[in-house]
Please model this.
Amino acid sequence: MNTSDSPKPRSQSTIAKLKETLAYPGWQVVGACSFLAVFCGSIFVYGFPVFFLHIQRDLELSSAATSLIFALSRGEAGLAGPITGWIVDKFDSRPIIIFGGLMVGGGLAILSIVNTYWIFLVVFIGMVAVGNNTSFGQTFLAVINRWFVKRKAIAMTLVITSYTIGGAFMVPLLSRGVEALGWRTVLLYAGIFVVVLSIPTSFFIKRSPESVGIDIDQSPEALDEPTSTSAKARSSESDFGVKEAMKTVTFWLMLTGSSLRISVTSGLLVHAIPIMTWKGLSEQSGADLIALLFFIAIPARLFFGLYNSGIQTRYILSMGMAFGTLGLFTMIFVDASWSVYVFVGGIALLEGATTLNWVLMGQYYGRRNFATIIGIITAVYSVGMLASPLFLGWMFDRTDSYHIGLVVFLVMYACSSIFFFFSSRPTPPARPQLQLG
Model:
């Protein structure tokens, strides 16, 4: 009798624990960040390459001059990265998101009536890029990193995957909108859309559990094993300071691997549709293939981010980079129509694994200075984000081909895979312990 009754309390305990986990306010923050990533962040991150050829033709620009618009906007993210990281670590997230939403929305509306290249460049970089990079990038990652410990990988994966979900339907939607209404009208509507969504949604994004009176050590995000007061103190002390992180070899391996990866991906995304037309596809077909890439990347990101295979995170990240390297190699050296599909599949798997890039940084260096640390990394890889689209555009103007530029990118992807492979967990910082008595 007692034996048959024994599972009931255990079952009730499991259900109660699940309810407690789902009631954790951090999931509301995840939902709000994901919503803005889908409908606002993805427009800038993945949607803008749709406008590349239209801007080039309308303003009568070379490929390099058009690339400069996108390159400088990505470079700005890095130059402002440490400052943005410091602001996000020190202040509330809500006003940052509202500020960014107004900047992006106003900037897009102004761009819809600009006819001069240099004015277009200044508005795109000074308003749209600043607003997006401040509000819809580092802020989300830093907020999620503060709210989650035990389920950090799940929460970050959901937010980062939301950008891909947005890209999967925003790219074909924007492409067809441009064909039907013109690119300027689409930019105007996109600006209004961003403002209307970002301001009310920002009220659901709280800075941290501590900011609303939650002790994370007493929440569902507390580590399962019981800890003493001294053990909790040691856990808090394991968070790296900025200078402490920079003294580890792993930091520089991650910085180099991240910089190579993001530089190449930036160049590929800016020139994605022109590359597809170079391979013989129409602009609309190219946009549809890029949308397919994002559709494949959605389950790939969820799989890589949520599946606990027992394999170290750095090895999975390295493997994802290897898939992308293989896809790019196939498109460059295989002269067949199916090569673009291998490229799309390889880059989608790479994008799926890259969720772990920032999860790994959070696992290695802790919660306290996360935004500042990745802000420093952002400052470094911004150089590559600026240079890679320009390099591809310049090479295409000189050779009427993307071949040489893509070969250089292939080597960079391969090197990134190697750097991630060797990025082992750093030794926690040694600090003097207070002696009792």
